[in-house]
Amino acid sequence: MRRSWTWIVFLAIPAAGFGQDESDPNSPNPNSPAQVEAAVMQLAAQLEKSRDEIPGPPGTPIPADPGRWHVTYRLGQMGPDAAGAVEALAGVLADPERIHWEYVRTSAAWALGRIGPEAAPAVGPLTETLASRLPSVRRHSARALGRIGPGALEAIPALTRSLGDEDGAVRINAALALWQIDGHPQAVPALVDLLQEETPTTAYRAAVALGEIGPDAEPAVDALVAALGHDDGDVRRVSARTLGQMGQVAIPSLRETLNRREPIAGRGAVEALGWMTPSEETIALLIGTLADPSPIVRASAARALGRFGPEAVAATSTLIQAVNDPEAMVRDAAARALGRIRKPASQGDSMKSGDRAGS
User: Fold this and answer.
1) 81 is in which domain, residue-wise?
2) Of 14, 34, 115, 185, which alpha carbon lies 20 to 30 A from 352's?
3) Residue 225 falls inside a structural domain
4) Which one of 184, 208, 241 terminates a domain?
5) Using CA atoms, how far apart are residues 114 and 80, in angstroms rounded to an integer?
6) How many domains does the chain divide into?
């Protein structure tokens, strides 16, 4: 997947044990709750100390400080275990008189999101930073509020305003947060509008967000099906995956798409079916698609059936016929699918949903 939600620089950061010799049988377990708590407190203290040492009067730009970024990023890596540092992380955001470097403030918001519901005491600062002049801070503040969930109810008015933000990623994260906090009725329609924007990156991110909502995003099915014909290949692929994540609610629209016999959209519809949990209905649709006029669609259907493994045994006879298809790509896909379907159950059971995503 070529696009991502954000960029993060990966640097070597000490583990929670801070150099503890794990080979020493007499040393405490560096992953024990006590050691983790001590590590969190040490990191939080470092963050508070560095904040107090920011040079110059209020409003003075601070020099690049990778040490502060290291601390916020390390805390984010620890996830919910870093709940004891929520106050310190919130302090990085709640200091409007200082001009923090964007990457430090962004990392602090990201870390609070990684902590999740236990970061609820930071809802106030996160809500305030939805008005930050820095787009990346606004993006991650909205995302963090969504990951906090129902504990962030007070942020609903600000998140609703963020649906009009000039930055597409902020609008997407705000819409998803509104859904995660209270299933807000504006969330899915806002994401549908973003999916239909001309900018491929925005459409891609909106499709990813709809996938996180899952079957409850049923009103977006038609827009996602339309996106199967998008000019951008990444948008087509993620829209197919999202439709697959929605499951049964998307099948009627996918069937209609396949009946139109449009190669690009048809291929996407087949990929969406391949992302679903195998069922008689999905397998029957894929079997029927092995007769599609487009060789690309036929080959995609064979690959999807192969990813289902032994559960697609009903497709065996049709795939045997497809081994004699006039197109090499279809013959190859059908042969590979037969090999997977005929695997012993113990091997077929190992092919999880992640395997279905491959080609």
Assistant:
1) 7-18+31-54+62-184
2) 115
3) no
4) 184
5) 7
6) 2
Residue 193: predicted pLDDT: 96
pLDDT higher than threshold 50 for residue 10: no
**pLDDT tens, position by position, 53-73:** 555 555 555 555 567 778 888
Confidence (pLDDT) at 191: 97
Structural tokens at position 254: 């996918």
pLDDT tens-digit series, residues 246-282? 999 999 999 999 999 999 999 999 999 999 999 999 9
Residue 203 in domain: no
> Is 178 in the same domain as 287?
no
The token pair that represents 205 in the structure block? 């991110």
pLDDT band at 25 (very low <50, low <70, confident <90, very high): very low
Residue 177 CA to residue 181 CA, distance in Å, equals 6
Give the domain CATH number at 310. 1.25.10.10
Give the side-chain half-sphere CA count within 13 A for 290: 27
DSSP 112-130: HHHHGGGGGGGHHHHHHGG
**Residue 102: inside a domain:** yes
Three-class SS string for the chain? CCCCCCCCCCCCCCCCCCCCCCCCCCCCCCCCHHHHHHHHHHHHHHHHHHHHCCCCCCCCECCCCHHHHHHHHHHHHHHHHHHHHHHHHHHHHCCCCCECCHHHHHHHHHHHHHHHHHHHHHHHHHHHHHHCCCHHHHHHHHHHHHHHHHHHHHHHHHHHHHCCCCCHHHHHHHHHHHHHHHCCCCHHHHHHHHHCCCCHHHHHHHHHHHHHHHHHHHHHHHHHHHHCCCCCHHHHHHHHHHHHHHHHHHHHHHHHHHHCCCHHHHHHHHHHHHHCCCCHHHHHHHHHHCCCCCHHHHHHHHHHHHHHHHHHHHHHHHHHHHCCCCCHHHHHHHHHHHHHHCCCHHHHCCCCHHHHCCC
- Whether residue 162 is found in the same domain as residue 13: yes
Residue 286 lies in a domain: yes
